[in-house]
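Suppose you are handed only two things: the residues of a chain and a line of SMILES describing zinc ion. What would the bound structure be? This form records exactly that question and the answer produced for it, so the two can be stored side by side and reused later without any lookup.

QUESTION INPUTS
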Amino acid sequence: MSVNERWLPIAGYEGIYEVSARGGVRSLDRIGPTGRKVPGRTLRPTVNASGYPAVVLYRDGAARKLYVHRIVLSAFVGPCPEGMEALHGPSGQGDPALSNLRWGTHAENVADTIADGNHNQARKTRCIRNHLLVDPNLTTSAARTGRRGCLACNRAQGRARSRGEQIDRAEADQLYAEIMKGTPAC
Ligand SMILES: [Zn+2]
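ANSWER OUTPUT
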């Protein structure tokens, strides 16, 4: 971590911890319970299942787990405005640097992630039966919701349901072939 890095106190933990614009979190030197000086150190964040780094901060014997991106935004931009959430830029949720962050609305957040190609549904290019999720094999709800649904599986599901059966793989594949007829394979 660069010595030129800009550090600011963390709200509620002033004099105990600091955060940097690059997303570093460090504890400051303090006097321990035995009167001995405890040197400050850089905290090593843990990363949750969604890829967001978090750190555990201690004060008055209480531990609190906080997302690094929220600490950075709160310190350098200000507290989260009512109804807003933390938005990550192109370098993704694993990068809590100030340059990759801003407060914004949930709608902006969804639009951002789809644009970045990080959205679960938008990124999905094949259905669970390995049919390509491209035009014309897309359900009509796809354009409206941004979720890509497999038209072949959707139709096969409908047919199977009308017979009181589970979806039939061969039927889904056949429907897929019919839908995609004349469409160049890619
Ligand atoms: Zn399918």
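WHAT STANDS OUT: The beta strands are 7-9, 17-20, 25-27, 30-31, 37-38, 46-47, 53-59, 62-67, 85-88, 101-104. The pocket of zinc ion is lined by residues 127, 129, 131, 150, 152-153, 172 (CB under 6 Å).
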